[in-house]
Amino acid sequence: MNEVNKSEFWDNLYKINSVGWDLKTPTPAFIDLLKSEYFADKSKMLITGCGYGYDAIAAAKNNFNVTAVDFSETAIQFAQSLAKKENVKINFIVEDFFSLNDDHLNSYEVIFDYVTYCAIDPSRRKEYADKIYQLLKTNGVFAIILFPIEKRIGGPPFAVDVEEATNLFSEKLELVVSTSEINSIKPRKGRELLQIYRKTNGKKS
């Protein structure tokens, strides 16, 4: 089994502070999304692979009802402590995203992913797309910042092919936005793409 499928792999990285993906601040493009038309009139949000919880806390401060999941207990413990300091309530879950139970089905108006898709075993990407669909409410939106868009060997992060990702998510969701014109941090500029999908009644299950 690929080591990225094991919670111990991720927890160890957090324990030794080998978390190069961590921005130590909310994702700038996510802050913009919180104020966007795509998130308007929506409240219940799921953040996948939430890490230290910076994005989850930012969403909670913007009046979203946030559930945030991560495979690492160490990351979630830090996130819970930070949320307490910031005086916000967030439902943090230590869990394999793929194992979220039926209580979460058709539950979320917004799902956000940044550096989770590139962290999972690439052989499970279709399974990931299917799970996103199952968790979204009808008319809910899935926002993902695809990264790293480049040719690279190994991972994580594993290389992301935009066409492959678009085809996977578009099987059941409607693509409404695809743009590289986002507020990227300098080292990632030109290597990432924001996509927003919507779950509509017309899509097959």
UniProtKB/TrEMBL annotation:
SUPFAM superfamilies: S-adenosyl-L-methionine-dependent methyltransferases (SSF53335). GO terms for biological process: methylation. GO terms for molecular function: S-adenosylmethionine-dependent methyltransferase activity. It comes from the Bacteria. Keywords: Methyltransferase, Phosphoprotein, S-adenosyl-L-methionine, Transferase. InterPro entries: SAM-dependent_MTases_sf (IPR029063), TPMT (IPR008854). It holds the Pfam family TPMT. Transmembrane segments: none annotated. This is Methyltransferase domain-containing protein. It comes from Ignavibacterium album.
